[in-house]
Amino acid sequence: MSTPPHPWWKSATVYQIYPASFLDANGDGTGDLAGIIAKLDYLKDLGVDVIWLSPIYRSPLADMGYDISDYEDIDSRYGTLEDWDRLLEGAHTRGMKLMMDLVVNHTSDEHAWFTASKSSKNDPRRDWYIWRPGKVVDGEELPPNNWKSVFQGSAWERDPATGEYYLHLYVSKQPDLNWDNPVVRSAVWDVMRFWVRRGCDGFRMDVINIISKTDGLPDAPLVDNTQYYQPASMYFANGPQVHRYIKQMHTEVLSHHDLITVGETPFTHEASELAAYVLPQNRELNMVFHFELMDIDSPSESPLLRKPWTLSELKAIVGRWQRFMRDDGFWNAVFIENHDHARSVSRFGNDSAQWRAISAKMLAIFEITQTGTLYVYQGQELGLKNFPRTWGIEEYNDVASQNYWNLIKEQRQKAQGKEDVEMSDLLDSFALKARDHARTPMQWNASAHGGFTTGTPWMRVNDDYPEWNAERQIGDEMSVHAFWKRALKVRKAHDVLIYGDFVMLLEAHEQVFAYTRNYGSTSALVLLNFKQGKAEVDLREAIGGVTGYAFVLGNYENEGIGLEEKVTLRDYEGRVYVREALLN
Ligand code: GLC
Q: One Pfam family name from the record (predicted)?
């Protein structure tokens, strides 16, 4: 019996572009579609199969485009619909696909749907958003409930014209759509059809697991007694109707096309809930971005703060998801960077001058040897790292950083009864964890602003661009870029790395993450030293014999080295071996 071929998106390498910071072709300081078009050969050469564009729709950029005021037009900073068509054609001609960011939990408050909704209680679009009267407590009017917005403060904004409040789980310029209204859902299907008709190959769906809110919008339990507003994700993450709505999306739109779909699903690590979005028999999405690994170093107060993580925690998380419901068809999205997180080499590797390149390459091996669809974030292929601690708060543009900074500052000012309060500890945390680190402009060459723009960049370029840039790395076989290119080829050449099972070895080892992957008659062995300092690994018991294993990839100059029963891995060393079954 022959097995059906795997769908194309399983073996794809997806490259995420943050358009504002990719390449500015017209010198206005912001990246644009023409800049992306100019780099299509760069992407193809790297080994990219699918380009995912963070939002480029018309937007007031309250949250860098995750606040859309027109779903069917391109923001003029980025170009025009015709530029988008040219980008699509350029990608398709090179055998690459183009995936759009679908941000439909909320719109911008400047979207025509919202301006209509806000205009009067009787407007036909009133019910497209979530409006409620305030609640009066002891003669004082409060928002309808105590939900805290993800970006601080109340999740409700009072509109003086009608005296009612609208829900915004993010900033007040991002009102949440009312998905319980079937007309809203139809409007979303129409947006999707618009882009599919134009030729897009799939969607990354922004916070798609929060579109259905619990009936009655009950108050959240008190967990933080420093403030009135409380985290409320138990009432909006994986809400009561979410699977019904996504199934409807599948029936109405997705099932008619061969698309790649990935849902962003934060606020939950609940495996059975996450599985429900992905299992093929449910007919919802191809895969989700869950955040169990990304949350590993975040305390509950805020992802902008840092808590220490251990390798055993990381192994447990990755091991669980790599093995999770494979027989039922669950499929992973493998990523360690995106526009919402600090740079991976600064979080999971070692970004010091001595270890930066080596540890960035080790992390590349970590990613390309996992089962799932692979995602690479712009600049990751160059080993870009966080910007320095010496940069002040004025360099942090992100609304999440700004709002959190202001909140803590106000709290301290109040508590200490003075204006001038010490904030350097928060800057220490931001230097490690802020989203801003992923948003600095791409470093293309050693010219001013890293060759990103001939104008003034919307965000400062990291200081290391004269040395750390694409041009320099492309010509250097030992560079992080050259390594990523090789690593992506190795992955494509070995189906076992994409589809194989996952067996964790040496589970208790505190320094090394080791595993085998098996697919048909092929096995792969992966050894990753996540720490500085040598690590001894004894493979005798772990895999039985070492005969037949051929070296295929490593981040030190060690081509051609065989596998022995006792291996000493150097600092941050990673190696991959593959063994084809011996035919008797
Ligand atoms: C997603 C996006 C993030 C944005 C948020 C609100 O998490 O990735 O950048 O701020 O949704 O749209």
A: Alpha-amylase
